[in-house]
Amino acid sequence: MAELPKSPENRPKVYSAEKVRQGDIILRKPWQRIVFLLGLVIPFVLLLIWLVVRHWSS
User: What are the structural domain ranges in the chain?
Assistant: First the structure.
């Protein structure tokens, strides 16, 4: 593992856990909301289709 630089100005900044927490998802435009929701919904729809096809084919 690499050592930290000796001088304080060359060291990486240290942030508190409060400052680095994840932010909000901001979807301002309708197309952004649609793409986001499709990204959440499509995997479940594909899983259901796969399960139905698998059930009917056996």
Answer: 26-58
What's the token pair of residue 3? 């050592």
Single out the residue of 27, 52, 23 nearest to residue 39, CA to CA: 27
Ranges of H-type helices in 1-58: 30-57
Residue 34, amino acid = I
Long-range contacts of 34-43 (CB under 8 A, 24+ apart): none
Question: Would the pTM of this model clear 0.70, i.e. be above it?
Answer: no
Instruction: Encode pLDDT of 13-40 as tens digits.
Output: 787 877 777 778 889 999 999 999 999 9
Structure tokens at 37: 């929701």
